[in-house]
Design a protein that fits this description.
four-stranded mixed beta sheet; Glyco_hydro_76; elongated; Glycosyltransferase; signal; three-stranded antiparallel beta sheet; heme binding; alpha+beta; iron ion binding; Cytochrome p450; about 850 residues
């Protein structure tokens, strides 16, 4: 700090004296944050805060007017990365009325996203911001690296997928222009727009470091195993490429190879190693498997750097060339920062993990900061986060929603889905257990009467076919002959075809499922890191369901093929869009939706490939499948038409993947909030010897089964259901002043019931019906009051199959982990698709047994 005068009388906060450029002041503020983060020493915190706030500029976007002579995108980027570090480490927040760290980082991102231009070189940021500055015609990697780094880290911190989109876009542009060579993962300096194919070949440590940390953030922010695997490979590639910068006898001393060996490092380049050290250390938090490779490099470099810190008038100034093991006669801010950063980096293992918006982060954001609002663009007709009404903000007070495509609208849909169920519950309280309402111009009868539900699903099922919204949400994806979309004789045919595939001897064969459970458990971080268990469960059930049905797993938890990844994307998109159409009524259902049709066509082609493959194997007597018993083989024994077969395969896939994953997630969600239940459950699990319980053993674990029942009671995968009267008919209750008499139902009337409300009936489940208490099932006996798998002839065929999988998953999980802790304090919310799910994931951390 002997070089810094910004905290002295007459000094300018945030600025280093000439000849240092403005950007290095931002880099220094970042180093002061790192110093506090690693050591806990607060003596420089106010200095860093003052500097970071003083330089924000009139629009709070790090565009101060006095820097227009020299400011480039990379200069602004370094200040943006510094305030983002402040948000991620929970550095002391600015006073009220001052711009906040997260909002400042978002402002930098938004102003830079607005500068992305495709006229020259197909995209990218120019080096300089202003046309009059030398270098405006140059597109350099560090400008892209800063933008990529900020976008990726904002994606991780907020969960807003538009940031992830920009990070992907920047990465793809770097690869397309060959500034990033994916064979070696070397990153080159840049190119002039007059000839985009002519690359300046210099390589710098800070380029490698910025891209490395950004890739690690993208890995950590991935919402699917396929995404995580892609970014894991990129992290490994960049780490391999960065080895270029480690020289010496054992190739472990950090060196600025483009200028150090020839003594040509300029004032800027003397500090570059500071940022590679900073970002390599931070990478180990978001990509933990890299620690074993990175730590020895940081350790050897720190020892070498320390050996040069013997110079200057005070005998403690550090040199630039660490390989010499002595002071090389140079001094400066860059040399001091580089030595400090690499020494601090060796403390990373005992430093806390960076926070996120939902996991301890306290910095307040503004996705529309900086005036452009690019970070608020989430692909929905240009609507931005700042367009949220005050009422919406009051209902959901968090700074940015987290996780999932179109994150902001997902949060609103979650609120509307949950609020709608709450509205139904309020109506039951005020209007009785059966009432009429109007929705989209049509009359809907809503009931929570057990006798009415029993009549519709059971005793008088023939009068109540699937139609209306219930049909519209399945028809586009599953086809007209699916067991979920057909009625009458067509439904009986489909059921007869599928039922033999769920016989008990196949339910008890858990070998296939065990393989996918083990794959999932292997991906779980066990060092207290927050992760989304729901996302892993959806990947795992997709892998196991496709394995069970097709004999070939999608492999999302291991290494999914591009075709499998595309199938999953199409499947999820089609499910989401068809459910949305159903909620908006028959008019939208009949309108053209080309993208939905294409997704459905493509996902059906994926299944068709395996249908053809299975048919050929059946004909030729060959076998290439991953397992002996395959659902598809059983179906083909009946020689069904091809499209009919695909309908049924997709039907079972929806049930086997979505509903099972949601059910499993609900179990872990409630257990993460009930350590007493976890302790009791683990004691029961310990009574089973061996790692592979049988179906019979699982069935006799009473408390485990009580836990599953209770979770399904509070969070049934299908929270609401409906049927449509095929003719004028009668329901046994709902008429008269007190609702105790029969009620006439006209032909075409939609009747809806809600297991979400039915399962919270205090008269049946007790005054604590809204609470998770597995012990209630010790003596509780219920019938139609509890229908997580529906009821009557159309009760879920795979009920026992699903329950066995859930029990097995919980058993295996608590064999490995002794505790699970919730990392999300928000109230329970659900969101509807074809099934329901937790809109913000099941965020937890675990500890190994």
């Amino acid at each position: 700090m002997s070089f810094y005068e910004g905290n002295h009388l007459g000094g300018t906060p945030g600025l280093l004296p000439k000849p240092y450029y403005w950007w290095e002041g931002g880099a220094l503020m970042g180093s002061l944050i790192d110093y506090w983060y690693y050591t806990g020493d607060t003596q420089w915190n106010d200095v860093a805060q003052d500097g970071l706030l003083f330089q924000t500029g009139p629009n709070n976007d790090y565009m101060p007017p006095n820097q227009t002579v020299t400011e480039g995108n990379d200069d602004q980027g370094f200040w943006g990365m510094a305030v983002l570090s402040a948000a991620e480490t929970n550095f002391q927040n600015p006073p009220d009325g001052k711009p906040q760290w997260l909002a400042l980082a978002q402002a930098v991102f938004n102003t830079q996203a607005a500068r992305w231009e495709t006229r020259y070189c197909g995209g990218g940021l120019r080096w300089q911001i202003f046309t009059w500055n030398n270098g405006y015609n140059y597109k350099n990697s560090i400008s892209q690296a800063c933008f990529f780094n900020i976008a990726a880290r904002l994606a991780r911190y907020t969960g807003n997928q538009s940031y992830a989109h920009w990070a992907e876009k920047t990465w793809d542009w770097m690869v397309t222009t060959k500034l990033l060579d994916t064979r070696t993962f070397y990153i080159y300096d840049g190119m002039h727009i007059e000839n985009c194919s002519r690359i300046t070949p210099y390589q710098w440590t800070y380029n490698a470091g910025a891209f490395l940390l950004g890739a690690a953030a993208m890995y950590n922010a991935s919402t699917t195993a396929a995404q995580a695997e892609t970014w894991r490979e990129r992290v490994d590639g960049l780490l391999n490429g960065s080895l270029l910068f480690f020289t010496g006898a054992t190739k472990d001393i950090m060196t600025e190879v483009a200028c150090e060996p020839v003594d040509l490092c300029d004032l800027d380049q003397q500090s570059f190693k500071a940022y590679l050290a900073r970002w390599m250390a931070a990478t180990t938090k978001w990509a933990p498997w890299t620690y074993g490779r990175i730590k020895p490099l940081l350790e050897a470099s720190a020892i070498a750097a320390t050996s040069t810190c013997t110079g200057g008038d005070n005998d403690r100034m550090c040199g630039l060339k660490w390989n010499t093991r002595k002071w090389d006669g140079t001094t400066g801010v860059g040399q001091q920062m580089a030595a400090m950063e690499v020494i601090l980096a060796n403390m990373i293992e005992r430093s806390p993990p960076p926070v996120t918006d939902w996991d301890g982060g306290t910095s307040v954001g503004d996705p529309a900061a900086g005036g452009n609002g690019a970070g608020a663009d989430i692909g929905r007709k240009g609507r931005a986060f700042h367009a949220v009404s005050d009422a919406e903000r009051a209902a959901y007070p968090h700074k940015d929603p987290i996780l999932g495509l179109d994150a902001f609208f997902d949060s609103l849909r979650a609120l509307s889905s949950h609020s709608l169920l709450d509205l139904y519950a309020q109506r039951f309280a005020s209007c009785g257990s059966t009432y009429s309402m109007t929705a989209l111009g049509s009359s809907v009868l809503v009931t929570n009467e057990v006798e009415n539900i029993k009549t519709i699903l059971g005793t008088n099922m023939v009068d109540w076919p699937i139609d209306g919204p219930r049909l519209y949400c399945t028809l586009p994806v599953l086809g007209p002959n699916s067991i979920f979309s057909s009625n009458g004789a067509a439904w009986h045919k489909a059921r007869a075809m599928l039922k033999p595939s769920f016989v008990r001897n196949q339910i008890s064969d858990l070998k296939c499922f065990d393989r996918h459970i083990r794959n999932m458990l292997a991906t779980i971080p066990a060092d207290g890191v927050t992760f989304d268990l729901q996302s892993l469960l959806f990947d795992m059930t997709m892998d196991s369901s496709t394995d069970f049905m097709l004999g070939h797993s999608t492999g999302l938890l291991t290494q999914a093929s591009p075709a499998a990844q595309r199938f999953v994307r199409d499947f999820e998109y089609a499910s989401r869009e068809s459910a949305k159409q159903a909620r908006l009524g028959p008019v939208l259902h009949k309108l053209p939706h080309r993208k939905l049709k294409k997704a459905v066509r493509d996902l059906r082609e994926y299944v068709r490939f395996y249908v053809h493959k299975a048919a050929d194997e059946k004909k030729n007597g060959s076998k290439t499948k991953d397992r002996d018993y395959v659902f598809l083989d059983e179906l083909l024994l009946q020689n069904p038409p091809e499209e009919y077969t695909i309908d049924q395969v997709l039907s079972v896939l929806v049930a086997g993947r979505d509903t099972t994953a949601t059910a499993m997630a609900s179990v872990f969600y409630f257990l993460a909030r009930s350590p007493t239940a976890v302790a009791k459950l683990r004691e029961e699990i310990k009574t089973i010897d061996g790692e592979y319980p049988t179906w019979e053993q699982l069935r006799h674990l009473k408390y485990l089964n009580n836990v599953i029942k209770e979770a399904l009671r509070l969070f049934s995968p299908v929270a609401t259901n409906s049927r449509t009267a095929a003719k004028e008919t009668v329901l046994p209750r709902g008429g008269g002043k007190d609702g105790s008499l029969p009620v006439l139902v006209r032909k075409g009337t939609l009747v809806r019931w809600l297991s979400h409300c039915l399962h919270r009936n205090k008269a049946v489940f007790g005054p604590d019906a809204d609470e998770f208490r597995p012990e209630r099932w010790d003596d509780l006996r219920v019938g139609w009051e509890y229908i997580p798998f529906s009821g009557g002839p159309r009760i879920c065929l795979a009920q026992q199959f699903a329950l066995t999988q859930i029990a097995y998953a919980v058993f295996k999980f608590f064999r490995i982990f002794r505790s699970i802790e919730a990392r999300d304090s928000r109230p329970l919310l659900l969101q509807t698709n074809l099934t329901i799910f937790f809109p913000f994931g099941c965020l937890v951390s675990v500890e190994r047994a």
